[in-house]
Each structure stands twice: as structure tokens, then as C-alpha cells.
Amino acid sequence: MERLLLLEDDLALGEGVRLALQSPSRPVTLCRDLAQARQTLAGDGPFALAILDVNLPDGSGLSLLEELRGRVPVILLTANDLETDVVAGLELGAEDYITKPFSLAVLRARVNAQLRRQGGGGQVVEVGEFHFDFDRMIYRKAGRLVELSKTEQKLLKLLVQNRGVTLARADLVDRVWTDGAEYVDENALSVTVKRLRDKLEDTPSKPKYLKTVYGVGYTWAVK
Fold first, then answer.
1. Alpha helix positions (H), the chain
2. Whole-number Å distance between alpha carbons of 47 and 200
3. pTM for the full model?
4. How does pLDDT run across 35-79, given as a tens digit for each residue?
5. How, if at all, do strands 28-31 and 4-7 pair?
6. At what angle do helices 11-21 and 104-118 cross, to 10 degrees?
């Protein structure tokens, strides 16, 4: 379980970000000010990642960043023209920053990347009826062991760690087939997707999880 803390005083923006990031295995707690965030951190932790707005009604998110240093990784949300906030935040230990306005897709990708880097939630993912232990290479569906090839494991890990985000075919090929081969058959990805669906989906021809986004690529649907 990867629990996120989101500190954003703009209610509409905060709800939009919360909905974009939240999933059954990744709950997001939205706080409107520093006082609420501190109360939440004191009584409702631990959190895998904190996303902090800098300019808040009751102070600066940078003060909370100082308190979280070494305990919780932080991504800052900063106004586009406040370069000083970015510099100060990085010097205080923020892992990343995103300037407003920003794309929700980009934010999701940056959050996913940071959680992978930090090991947030470890390499064990429980989503729906699935239990995926990527470190021990143990995969279960409804308690039943599922045998996966190394290529299937690599593809599954990319999709599950970025669930809810569409990954382009070209990017998946580049990241799964990284053995230095000069040429990868264009059907290799399609074949691997089909094999994963055959092993994981109840009805492979009508997948609930590993979905095709036509003309783009694939996504592991958030359930």
C-alpha cells in the first residue's frame, strides 16, 4: 500500500490531483493547510510520498518539507515564476518539483518514478485479486500461483507500477527488450501482452486489467 499526502489549498485543483493519483492500492489524503497536514502526519501515517504546495494560507510548504526531511520523500508544487521556491526546496531536500500549471499525466508519471526510486510500498503490489511480489518473482491470482517468463514479468512490472497511465508501445519495447538487440520483431510486444492476458485475465478476449489504448499502447486499469 502506497499512501500519499497531498497538501494543496486550491480545493478544485486538489480534488483533481487526488482523483488522478488515487487507486485502491494508493490512497491519497488531501489536506488544505499546514495545520491539517501536520495533524494528519502525526496521527495517520506512514506515508510513502508527500506532495506539497509551497504557498499556503497558514505558511509555506517549505517549513513542512524541513520537518519531513529524511522521513518522507517530497515533491513540491510551485508557482511557475517562483524560481526561488524551487532552489530553496531542492536545497532543503525535496526529491522533485513540478511548476504550475502542470499536466496530470506528467504528475502521475513523476509520482510513479519517485515511488519506484524510493522503493515506496516495496516491490510487493496487491491490486484486486492479484498479489505480485516482484523481488521474489512470485505472482498469484486469487491465491493461485501464476508462472511468468522473464519478459512477461518485466512487462507486468512496468504496467502495474504505472497503473492508470497509458504507456506507449515504443516505450514499452525500449524498456522491456533492453538486451542490446538491434532489432525486435514488432509483434513481440503484442505476443507478450496476449500471453499475460491468457494467464491473468478471466476472459482474455475482454480484458478487465491489461487494456489496449488503440493507437497508443497499453495500460493496467485502476480497479
1. 11-21, 34-43, 61-68, 83-91, 104-118, 150-161, 169-176, 188-200
2. 30
3. 0.55
4. 999 999 888 767 889 999 999 999 999 999 998 887 888 999 988
5. parallel
6. 60
